[in-house]
From TrEMBL:
<dbReference type="GO" id="GO:0000906">
    <property type="term" value="F:6,7-dimethyl-8-ribityllumazine synthase activity"/>
</dbReference>
<dbReference type="InterPro" id="IPR034964">
    <property type="entry name" value="LS"/>
</dbReference>
<dbReference type="InterPro" id="IPR036467">
    <property type="entry name" value="LS/RS_sf"/>
</dbReference>
<keyword id="KW-0808">Transferase</keyword>
<comment type="pathway">
    <text>Cofactor biosynthesis; riboflavin biosynthesis; riboflavin from 2-hydroxy-3-oxobutyl phosphate and 5-amino-6-(D-ribitylamino)uracil: step 1/2.</text>
</comment>
<dbReference type="GO" id="GO:0009349">
    <property type="term" value="C:riboflavin synthase complex"/>
</dbReference>
<protein>
    <recommendedName>
        <fullName>6,7-dimethyl-8-ribityllumazine synthase</fullName>
        <ecNumber>2.5.1.78</ecNumber>
    </recommendedName>
</protein>
<keyword id="KW-0686">Riboflavin biosynthesis</keyword>
<dbReference type="GO" id="GO:0009231">
    <property type="term" value="P:riboflavin biosynthetic process"/>
</dbReference>
<comment type="subunit">
    <text>Homopentamer.</text>
</comment>
<dbReference type="Pfam" id="PF00885">
    <property type="entry name" value="DMRL_synthase"/>
</dbReference>
<comment type="similarity">
    <text>Belongs to the DMRL synthase family.</text>
</comment>
<comment type="function">
    <text>Catalyzes the formation of 6,7-dimethyl-8-ribityllumazine by condensation of 5-amino-6-(D-ribitylamino)uracil with 3,4-dihydroxy-2-butanone 4-phosphate. This is the penultimate step in the biosynthesis of riboflavin.</text>
</comment>
<dbReference type="InterPro" id="IPR002180">
    <property type="entry name" value="LS/RS"/>
</dbReference>
<dbReference type="GO" id="GO:0005758">
    <property type="term" value="C:mitochondrial intermembrane space"/>
</dbReference>
Amino acid sequence: MAVKGLGELDQNYDGSKLRIGIIHARWNKKIIDALVDGAVQRLKALGVTDANIVIESVPGSFELPYGSLQFLQRQQAKGEPLDAVIPIGVLIKGSTMHFEYICDSVTKALMRLNFDAKVPIIFGVLTCITEEQAEARAGLIQGKMHNHGEDWGAAAVEMASKQPK
């Protein structure tokens, strides 16, 4: 599966009783779609049912932290709490400092959300220098790299399985 990362450990976890949320940015649609598909495929391979995979979107990566919190709160209010959330975004460096500010802000906010929400928030944000790097990490360039969405799905099941009930 992974060149570096989770390896085969993820096969030890059963996601059949878990409800996992995926919230994704709408920028860089081709790459986002591949990453979401990879996460969904891995979740299903680990036993998460279609009915327990909930997917929403937000405008961009900057909106992922607050969007994730709102997503958790909406699902909780409906009586259908999420066991983990995978925020998925793609940030590609341009010619201004915008990239650095957004990467730093989103990373710190998602990390903090783990502790504030007390629910695993998986870091599913690619921060790439080029579009080709992002495409490779989304599994869109044959033989170059695997789809990182798969790793995020596995991480969600592992971390949710370790949560005290």
